[in-house]
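Sequence, please.
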């Protein structure tokens, strides 16, 4: 069974209207549509379209980067309690657009690939991958089996007795703490005494720092083994798709160039660096050893030498 879940506040800043989104979902044969939102924030007209509204209490005020940013995690964690382990859950927000391709894909039997010897059993689909910071999974859209999502998403997650807030940058990384916990070299290295919302962002010094090179290699290995994306443009927010934000999509043919645009070694084509990946091509090419530049080669060699350990 497939369950489509909207979370958070009601938003209309998207290409498709809420009614159009609901009609698109139903046209693909998905009838179980939920909206998990904060008490007092529901727009009940969506119930007329067949959406089940579930209101929950906010855990505490939201302040980006410090105490309170787990509110988004609390939201989806609460949503997962409504489903059984083998049900598929597609999580998104009202301001996210999506197309028919992804709605049909998540209903295919083998779409969520089996994982051998992994922390979870099946891959999780992500709306996109951002490469400008380590372990940056999006909080806006993802899908997978409930048991796998429930395994990764934990409100007030702790690693070695410390809040996951001291390891990750923001609640968009809600799928990452278990992978960080599973690699003690990583968790020891990225731990900070105070939460730092910019602490895992790419910097030029990372090119020659052995600890950051190891972290970036593990980052891409995790994306390759546990997640999948695409098809290109199948799910996006209004300002981020390839039509409206084309100059920030990665150059698939050049690895280091994309990182060079983040630290000023290469010029940006628009207002943002080339850091967004909307499908698996970029990750798969790195893992496959297809990139020739020194940065990519360093990461590839680290990945290959640690495959048995990771």
């Amino acid at each position: 069974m497939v369950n489509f879940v909207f979370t958070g506040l009601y938003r209309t800043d998207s290409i498709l209207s809420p009614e159009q989104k609901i009609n698109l979902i139903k046209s693909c044969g998905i009838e179980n549509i939920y909206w998990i939102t904060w008490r007092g924030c529901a727009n009940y007209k969506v119930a007329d379209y067949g959406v089940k509204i579930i209101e929950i209490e906010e855990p505490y005020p939201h302040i980006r980067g410090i105490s309170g940013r787990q509110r988004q995690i609390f939201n989806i964690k609460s949503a997962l309690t409504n489903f059984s382990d083998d049900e598929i859950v597609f999580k998104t927000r009202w301001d996210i657009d999506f197309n028919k391709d992804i709605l049909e894909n998540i209903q295919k039997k083998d779409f969520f690939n089996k994982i051998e010897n992994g922390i979870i059993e099946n891959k999780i689909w992500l709306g996109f991958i951002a490469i400008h910071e380590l372990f940056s999974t999006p909080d806006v859209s993802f899908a997978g089996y409930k048991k796998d999502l429930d395994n990764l998403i934990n409100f007030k997650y702790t690693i070695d007795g410390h809040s996951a807030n001291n390891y990750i940058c923001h609640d968009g990384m809600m799928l990452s703490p278990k992978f960080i916990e599973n690699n003690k070299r990583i968790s020891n290295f990225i731990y900070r005494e105070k939460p730092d919302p910019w602490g895992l962002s790419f910097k030029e010094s990372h090119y020659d720092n052995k600890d950051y090179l190891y972290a970036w290699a593990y980052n891409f290995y995790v994306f390759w083994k546990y997640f999948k994306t695409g098809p290109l443009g199948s799910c996006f927010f209004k300002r981020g798709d390839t039509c409206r934000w084309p100059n920030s999509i990665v150059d698939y043919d050049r690895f280091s160039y994309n990182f060079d645009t983040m630290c000023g070694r290469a010029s940006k084509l628009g207002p943002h660096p080339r850091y967004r990946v909307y499908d698996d091509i970029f990750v798969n090419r790195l893992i496959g050893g297809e990139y020739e530049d020194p940065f990519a080669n360093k990461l590839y060699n680290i990945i290959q030498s640690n495959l048995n350990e990771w």
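The radius of gyration is 19 Å.
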